């Protein structure tokens, strides 16, 4: 067992960064991280080769994907399949999201 002590805690991005991602756990079939985007920050992520589940710990925003747009806030859980373009927009409150990748992020080959 391993307790992920800092998972889900807001950590502001560094100077000149619009967002921050901290990987909390990595095993072959799963990785878990905390994604933080402050009000005024910009989510510039590109589609991933792994499936993702987002669990919003705090904050409010929209999650815009190729398949649609949804409002997210504390407790929201959203699945984004591998390869689907997506990003958080309209950040209304500092956003903290737990991100679960299956398999672990960057383990599938790019095609």
TrEMBL record:
Transmembrane segments: none
SUPFAM superfamilies attached to this UniProt entry: RmlC-like cupins
Xref: InterPro entries: Cupin_2, RmlC-like_jellyroll, RmlC_Cupin_sf
Domain of life: Bacteria
Span of domain Cupin type-2: 35-94
Name by which UniProt lists this protein: Cupin type-2 domain-containing protein
Lineage of source species: Bacteria, Bacillati, Actinomycetota, Actinomycetes, Micromonosporales
């Amino acid at each position: 067992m391993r307790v992920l002590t800092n998972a889900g805690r807001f950590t502001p991005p560094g100077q000149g960064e619009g967002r921050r991602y901290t990987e909390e756990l990595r095993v072959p079939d799963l990785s878990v991280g905390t994604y933080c985007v402050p009000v005024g920050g910009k989510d510039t992520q590109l589609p991933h080769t792994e499936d993702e589940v987002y669990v919003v710990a705090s904050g409010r925003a929209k999650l815009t994907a190729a398949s649609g747009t949804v409002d997210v806030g504390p407790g929201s859980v959203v699945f984004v399949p591998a390869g689907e373009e997506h990003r958080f927009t309209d950040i209304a409150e500092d956003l903290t999201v737990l991100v679960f990748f299956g398999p672990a992020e960057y383990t599938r080959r790019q095609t």
